[in-house]
Amino acid sequence: MQNKRLGNSDMFLSPLGIGAWAIGGAGWAFSWSSQDDRDSVKAIHAALDAGMNWIDTAAVYGLGHSEVVVAQALKDYSGRKPFVFTKCGRNWTSDRVITKDLRAASIRQECEDSLKRLQVETIDLYQIHWPEPDESVEEGWSALAELQKEGKVRWIGVSNFNVQQLKRAQAIAQVTSLQPPYSLVRPEVETEVLPHVLQNQIGVLAYSPMGSGLLTGAMTRERVTNLPQDDWRVRNPQFQEPLLSRNLKIADKLSEIGARHNRTAAEVALAWVLHQPAITAAIVGIRTPEQVAGVRGALEFRLSDSEFAEIEGFRHAG
Ligand SMILES: NC(=O)c1ccc[n+]([C@@H]2O[C@H](COP(=O)([O-])OP(=O)(O)OC[C@H]3O[C@@H](n4cnc5c(N)ncnc54)[C@H](OP(=O)(O)O)[C@@H]3O)[C@@H](O)[C@H]2O)c1
């Protein structure tokens, strides 16, 4: 396994990190339906045992619950502790309505709340979750730079920023990392964003690298039809026609390539993401130890040039 340095930081990351969105559980607008916290803790332990050395969460995941579960899992873990990354800029009201706020005072309060929930003295990477509202990007990013100077957070990054927004942030303080969506179903950042970050020593944590489950080989049309109503995926166009048929065809192709190596479609999907030189590492959403078993091979597995070309040919023909 080859660990890679994240941007200008001192952190060398395993190719896969633990994504903690789904383990936020049910009862909020972007839930993945119900999730047993005991499974989440076991999944995190299995991923750490497999060699993943970082975890990505956010205050808004489960409206604080994901950070609480992460803290629980790390408290109960006797092995080496991972780097802990979280995000800010999304708040919620007492009736669980999500709000967007990048004002300095709000971010300071959010940081204190995350430190408490995570039970850590410093956050290894603090990220602006979304550049919203756009006019507050400078104020929000300056607040993160202050928190870094004060030692509340060690490194600072952004998520879902375009090139213009990255440039505006870079004019204030070095952006250590960008967290964009990147997968075979959402490759858009390849055109402008990835060339820009490569030139500017900005690390990249690719999110939803398996298309939020679409490219694992475990997603079928029937399963999509039967997703619970409180799973955010029922409202997502990638899980609806015309994209659904295209996406399931890509997953079949990945299963076919994986079968040659005794690898899962998920592992091939992850290897495709990691083949891109601008990507530092991929954030993998896992909900059970069994799912960790189905992705951990991608810590080592790499596509040959001919297999990469085979996937590219298939994708562009489709
Ligand atoms: N910054 C942002 O705006 C943003 C946005 C999205 C995600 N993220 C980050 O990126 C992480 C990963 O993204 P993601 O969770 O959307 O997508 P993903 O990693 O592409 O897919 C994760 C989902 O795939 C399924 N899965 C995982 N392993 C599997 C296996 N071995 N076999 C079959 N199914 C498997 C699970 O869902 P089911 O079992 O329910 O199918 C799991 O929740 C998140 O946890 C979060 O940390 C950030």
Shape: globular
Count, helices: 11
Give the low-pLDDT segments.
Answer: none
User: Strand order of the main beta sheet, please?
Assistant: 3-4-5-8-9-10-11-12
Structural class, please? alpha/beta
Major sheet: size, sense and barrel closure?
A: 8 strands, parallel, barrel
CATH topology: TIM Barrel
Average of the residue pLDDT scores: 97
| Oligomer type | single chain
Distance between the termini: 33 Å
Name the CATH superfamily classification: NADP-dependent oxidoreductase domain
The strand count comes to 12
- Rg value: 19 Å
In terms of topology, how is this protein built?
Blueprint: E1 4-5, E2 12-13, E3 16-19, H1 37-50, E4 54-56, H2 65-75, E5 83-88, E6 90-92, E7 98-100, H3 104-118, E8 123-128, H4 137-150, E9 153-159, H5 163-170, E10 177-179, H6 193-199, E11 203-206, H7 221-225, H8 243-261, H9 265-274, E12 281-285, H10 289-295, H11 305-317
Parallel strand pairs: 3-4, 3-12, 4-5, 5-8, 8-9, 9-10, 10-11, 11-12
Antiparallel strand pairs: 1-2, 6-7
NADP nicotinamide-adenine-dinucleotide phosphate (NAP) is lined by residues 19-22, 32, 56, 129, 159-160, 179, 207-213, 216, 218, 266, 283-287, 291, 294-295.
Write up what this structure looks like.
This protein has 318 residues and is α/β, with parallel strands linked by helices. It has a single domain, classed as NADP-dependent oxidoreductase domain (TIM Barrel), CATH 3.20.20. The protein has helices at 37-50, 65-75, 104-118, 137-150, 163-170, 193-199, 221-225, 243-261, 265-274, 289-295, 305-317, and strands at residues 4-5, 12-13, 16-19, 54-56, 83-88, 90-92, 98-100, 123-128, 153-159, 177-179, 203-206, 281-285. It is globular. The mean pLDDT is 97. It binds NADP nicotinamide-adenine-dinucleotide phosphate.
